[in-house]
Each structure stands twice: as C-alpha cells, then as structure tokens.
Amino acid sequence: MTALIELREISKKYGSFQALSNINLSVRAGEVTCVLGDNGAGKSTLIKILAGLHNASSGQILLEGEEHQFNSPRDALDAGIATVYQDLAVVGQMSVWRNFFLGQELTGAFGVLKKDEMRQITEQQLREMGIELRDVEVPVASLSGGQRQVVAIARAIYFGARVLILDEPTAALGVKQSGMVLRFIAAARDRGIGVIFITHNPHHAYLVGDHFILLNLGKQILDVPRAGVTLEELTVQMSGGGELDSLSHELQR
User: Fold this and answer.
1) Could you tell me the pTM of the whole model?
2) Which domains does the chain have, with CATH numbers?
C-alpha cells in the first residue's frame, strides 16, 4: 500500500544546531505510527515540518508517492494533514459546537450562522466516535481534558484529515481520560485515517501503535513494526536501557 505521507532522509538545522538527522517515516491509511522520544529528542521539530510550519533543510516529503513541499500550515491542511497540538486550538468560554466549527463556520444569506445545523453536526460527529456530551452548548472549558482532546480530534477528522498528527495528547491526562483519547485514536485508525501519535509514554504507544519510531537527540534509533518489538523492549529503548542499569547499580551501593 502506498503511504499517505512518507519522509525520506529528512534533516533540519537551525544555524549550527542539528535538530533532526536523516529521519525516515511512512504513514499508511488505517495505521497508527507512534513517534517516541524524551524532551529534546526532535519530536517538536518533526511536527513543525509535517504541519508546514518549517521546511526541512534536506530530504524529501512524498504524498501518495509524489514529492511535495509544504510552505505553510494551509498547504498541509489542503493536503489532508491535520495537527492537534498539545495546547489545542480551542476557546475555553465558547461552546463545544462553536469550537468545532471555529474558523470554518457554516453561514447562510448575509453571513448568518447556521447554528442549528452546526449543533446537529457536532452532536452527530461526536456520537459516531463514541462521545456522548450532555449538551454541545456548554463551554469547552467545562469539559475534561480528555473530552477537549476528543473534540479537537473529531473536528480535524470531520474537516477532511487523512493524516492526523497528535502532539502528546495524553501527556497531562489521568488514566481514565488517557483511555478515552486512546480509544478515539483507535477509532480514527479504524476509519482508515493515518495517525501519527507523538508521545513519550511507551505504554500508551503500545496500546494503539502499529509501527514505532524512536528519536534521540534528533536521530532515529528505532524503526520497527509492532510485531518486531515487545512493550518491555520498547520501554527499555525509550528509557535509555544501559544508562538506567548503570544508575541503578550506582544508587544501590
């Protein structure tokens, strides 16, 4: 199957600082590709390149086999690549349905908002993804962290995302709320969307991931399908393995 999006030997330099070195990544429809790494691993730089915020210094980006360059976030969105950032793009005091259509409101004659239609669509889209809200008129700020993430993800899917990039969606959530978001990631995958799940949590990644990429100081140190790695191996790779063993011996003296 041709990848929806593929990165080949992508590198990024900021002046003399090498942020990424020769990164390869493929995202296919109906798969979750997990990109793991600690702080400073290069995950944020990778997101910016995929989202069209920054251009790579070298390498190729291919969309369904054809070379492409994103010169702006709009280019990425037009290509069906939507990014849901950790801080989200929601207005807390606005209602759920207003946030769902924020910047893409449905209007009728003389620019009048089609409020009833937007409410109905919001309710339907959330329900189809397994999320039942008491009322889409409530402010987004009144929702739990997991629910806010779900609204942002559902919005991206509704507006045509074929590739969904999720920036640490479970980082600030508890167990129950993280579970809600992970179920939603699985639901997006089952709809045939290619998902890039950026995380530093190998346990969350392994619950939904089909392929795993591990970054460390801008370099790709692991690129393996689910069948090729166990959760324990992924956790050891993520945590530094030998460094932790050395520290354990040192602290137990």
Assistant:
1) 0.87
2) 5-251 (3.40.50.300)
